[in-house]
Model the fold of this input.
Amino acid sequence: MKQASIGQVAALVFWAAAAIWASAAAPPASGAQDIACSTLETAVSQDPASENMSSVERSICQLQALNAAFGEDRRHALLFQSSGYLRDVGRAAGIKTSATVADAVTPSACGACHVDGAVLPDAHPPVEGMTMNGCRDCHVPGTPLALEGRLHLDHTHYLSGLECATCHENAEAPEEPETRVCLDCHGPLEALGARSADASPTNPHSSPHGAPFAECSLCHLQHAPQENYCASCHNFKFTFP
Done:
């Protein structure tokens, strides 16, 4: 009788442990990752609360925050879809995007921002009435004309409470921010280079060519196509951040 009791206890312990393991191993019912994003600040890369987050986890937090913050703001919803969140993060995380984002292939979607062609090359076809799929007829993903990487859209600046004029000074006629403006928050340049010292294949913030080639806008904040200065000397594949 005593041995049977020990066996029963052992069985109970076994099944209890199995149940705990199964509940821990099972994915959430919705397929979403269990990421704690209680506030907008959690999504900001500089915030101490997000130091231990992976880049994907941080992007998930940003997407959740943006869904709540932008609502029916079609222009910005379209932008953060185009930046790859919906494709690379939203679907993987099981996050439902707003109806505005899901409807971004309707006519005039691109024209929401490109209404006057001011940010497009002179020979660019008119985009008014064009759908996102129409853009992809030329801007095929994986080709040199792909749109990925041309907009700095992780929204860290927005989530930090900054406005357009903070960096662009004249928001009505914005120009590329000067490096000094970027370094007001992200500098000095030496410290920025130290933070990206482990970047591969080379440190993007430590140029062997000196300060004249260390302009932030050469790689970041590309609202319009820019010259690939690197390819004028170097023959290798390069993806803009």
User: Anything to note?
Assistant: The chain has two domains: 30-148, 163-241. The two ends are 70 Å apart (CA to CA). The chain is about 40% helix and 0% strand. The CA atoms of residues 76 and 199 lie 30 Å apart.
